Amino acid sequence: MGKVAVAAGVICAATVVAATAYIIRRRVRNSSGRVKAMEIAKDFEEDCATSFSKLKHVADAMTVEMHAGLASEGGSKLKMLISYVDNLPTGDEKGLFYALDLGGTNFRVMRIQLGGRDGRIVNQEFVEVSIPPNLMVKNTDALFDYIATELAKFVAQEGPGFHLPPGRQRELGFTFSFPVMQTSISSGNLIKWTKGFSIDDTIGRDVVAELAKAMERKGVDMHVSALVNDTIGTLAGGRYFNKDVVIAVILGTGSNAAYVERAQAIPKWQGLLPKSGDMVINMEWGNFRSAHLPITEYDRAMDIESLNPGEQIFEKLVSGMYLGEIVRRVLLRMAEEAAFFGATVPSKLKIPFILRTPDVSSMHHDTSVNLKVVGIKMKEILGISDTPLKMRKMVAQLCNIVATRGARLAAAAIYGVLKKMGRDTIQPGENQKTVIAMDGGLFEHYHEYSKCLETTLRELVGDHVSEYLFIEHANDGSGIGAALLAASHSQYLGMEES
After folding, report:
1. What is the pLDDT of residue 204?
2. Numbers of helices and strands, H then E, in the chain
3. In the 8-state DSSP scheme, what is residue 473?
4. Which of 123, 135, 69 is nearest to 96 (CA)?
5. In the prediction, which pLDDT does 106 show?
6. How confident is the model at residue 357 (pLDDT cuts 50, 70, 90)?
7. CB of 392 within 8 A of CB of 371?
8. What separation in angstroms does the CA of 239 have from each of 89, 91, 442, 468?
9. Residues of 99-117 as b/e, b for ≥16 C-beta within 10 angstroms?
10. At 13, is the pLDDT very low, low, confident or very high (cuts 50, 70, 90)?
11. pLDDT tens digit string along 137-161?
């Protein structure tokens, strides 16, 4: 029995030693893994840094590219498209006008009754319609026939709160949020599809003409008075309520800006100068690029694997489509190289775009002591249930890094536009206000992002200019703006109301 007891003791002792050794090795691995994860996060933060001087360089580069884009077609990565909008709404517009807003997987149709300066918007209605995925990749006629059919249904429901003067044709503003080469206020040829659309036979064709043909096929008697994109619609909607609005910025799934330029400052403009002396420019600033942009290895990898490699570089740094994906890629690196989530890399973490920007926003805004929201999101989206507080803090930190970089770069871009317009300074005796109309889900819902943007912009322009600089949220500006531009460019302008 004694030998048995001794043997058992030896085995037990050996087991304890092995278990202790395993625990020590695991702690060492965990410790080295945490160190490696922290190194990855630290390197990422350094690569995303947006110092004051760097932002100044980005703004200067934006101004230079704006000049180049206005000088000639193809002179810059910024297209600086002439919109042919030379009359923004004044508030005096009257009548019934429709809007069609096509910019993604849904489209909206809207009608508004305008009552002039005293009545403003008397009545408005809209309906939102989902586009079947197969129509986004089918053919031109199929897509526009579907839109015209839904528009016909909406017109048929026009109630007594809306009045069309006898003998007049209904007029529509068409918000088309894809790159087009505009040829007039009511015509423009599609340059390329984005946002999941891929219909080859539409490329190079006039989208207004295609809509008009579809409306005719479906029995809709309506004249398209204005073709605009969502950014110009936002500018028009902002100007309708505030005469000092001169810039519009969209920060949503994508990003863009439009502003009021002096027509004589557009060398590539070939026509007669408009009576107003002004021309709205659609910058298409998502395609801006500069050596001063803080682009990381994660951004480069995402760009290479994207549907449009080498394009929309700025948009991929600042817009809602991509912020969540950048965070996912950093977390994946941590999982693969630092065993951040344990010995096995979570399978869902390998799925591109599974982490959306609204999720990043929720985690970034989590102020609970134990970061409860971060834990819930990690479990629900990535299937990671064991998330200690240190891990949650690291995830929240990554969200902050990505959002801060995006917001500060967006602010620098706006500052570049202000410099081009000469509104980055205030001369003695001047009291000219500059109002920027902002729209888009990223700006509206990601409060840490929008707060950082405004703080950074005021830091760049300085205290004195800040007193005359205002940012306004132009909610649903693109839809209302299109209808207002149909009014300000109506075929019946100058005729007395019936």
Report:
1. 95
2. 16, 13
3. E
4. 123
5. 86
6. very high
7. yes
8. 6, 9, 22, 17
9. bbbbbbeebbbbbbbbeee
10. very low
11. 889 999 999 999 999 999 999 988 8
pLDDT of residue 271: 80
Amino acid identity of residue 201, one-letter, is D
Provide the pLDDT confidence category of residue 6 given band limits of 50, 70 and 90: very low
Tell me the residue type at 133.
Answer: P
Q: Which two tokens stand for residue 57?
A: 């360089």
Sign of the four-CA dihedral 447, 453, 457, 459? positive
* pLDDT for position 495: 66
Question: Model pTM?
Answer: 0.87
Angstrom distance (rounded) from CA 146 to CA 155: 15
Taking only the tens place, the pLDDT of each residue in 311-328 is 999 999 999 999 999 999
Count Cβ atoms below 10 Å from residue 214 Cβ, excluding itself.
22
CA distance 322 to 253: 8
* C-alpha span between 310 and 290 (Å, rounded): 12
Q: Over 50: is that where the pLDDT of 439 sits?
A: yes
Helix, strand, coil tally for the chain in percent (to 5): 50, 15, 35
Please state the separation of Cα 454 from the chain's center in Å.
Answer: 16
* Token reading at 489: 């460019």
Q: Which residues are catalytic?
A: 195, 230
- C-alpha to C-alpha distance for 465 and 418, rounded to whole angstroms: 11
Closest CA to 443 of 420, 417, 477: 477
Report the length, in residues, of the chain: 498
φ/ψ of 282, rounded to 5, equals: -90, 105
List of residues 6+ apart from 72 with CB closer than 8 A: 267, 268
Q: How far is it, in rounded angstroms, from Cα 66 to Cα 285?
A: 9
Half-sphere exposure of 88 (CA within 13 A, CB side): 27
450 phi and psi angles, rounded to 5 deg: -65, -35
For range 232-244, the mean pLDDT = 92
Segment (H or E) for 262:
strand 255-262
Q: Return the beta strands (E) in 4-93 as ranges.
A: 81-82
d(CA 109, CA 174): 9
